[in-house]
Amino acid sequence: DKGELGFRFSQSAHIVGRGVEEKPSYIVGRAYLLKSWIVSHRAGQISYSKGYLIVGQTGYYYVYCQLYSRDADATSYNFLLYIDEKPVLKAVKPIISSRKTYNNTNYIGGVFRIAAGQRISVRTQYKNLFMYNSTDSFFGAFMIHP
Predict the structure, then answer these.
(1) Dihedral over Cα of 56, 41, 52, 109: its sign
(2) How much of the chain exceeds pLDDT 70, in percent?
(3) Residue range 126-145: average pLDDT?
(4) Among candidates 42, 38, 35, 70, which has minimal Cα distance to 56?
(5) Domain ranges in the chain?
(6) Which H or E run contains 4?
(7) Confidence of residue 11 (pLDDT cuts 50, 70, 90)
(8) Terminal Cα distance for the chain, rounded
(9) CA distances from 113 to 63, 108, 122, 134, 145 (A)
(10) In CATH, which of 3.40.190.10, 2.60.120.40, 2.60.40.10, 3.90.180.10 is domain 12-46+55-135?
(11) CA torsion sign, 30 to 70 to 22 to 133?
(12) What is the pTM of this model?
């Protein structure tokens, strides 16, 4: 039995690609919101809706994302993790080879204090082709301390 303390820490979600290959098309502010996700795991008061993880309990969370880009026409790609409308982490990968390598994966993660009701999202500034396979592209968050 975890008791009350274990229950309070069970705030987590892991969101994975829904098995498609597509370019982003839904722009929010100055970046494209990535929305091709499905819920793989969810516990506690954290929820997912239309590209956003919504935190239900204030605390410190480890937030992470990995994206797989496969675009032969790209010269670079990036993605950003947002908390509400503020970018908090950014991954950038230039493609500088004369033989374009179009299979690229980047991972980012960090710890942030997130208040109940705040939203986490993944966005990009480029219209690259992303592979939304459950093992290649995913994002999520879990509470490490209230």
Answers:
(1) positive
(2) 84
(3) 91
(4) 42
(5) 12-46+55-135
(6) helix 3-9
(7) very high
(8) 20
(9) 10, 17, 17, 27, 9
(10) 2.60.120.40
(11) negative
(12) 0.87
**CA pair distance 96, 98, nearest whole angstrom:** 7
* Distance, CA of 82 to CA of 60 (rounded, Å): 15
Alpha-carbon distance 82 to 76, whole Å?
20
Q: What is the CA radius of gyration of the chain?
A: 16
Give pLDDT tens digits for 45-89.
Answer: 999 999 999 999 999 999 999 998 876 666 677 899 999 999 999
Q: Assess contact for 102 and 72: CB atoms under 8 A.
A: yes
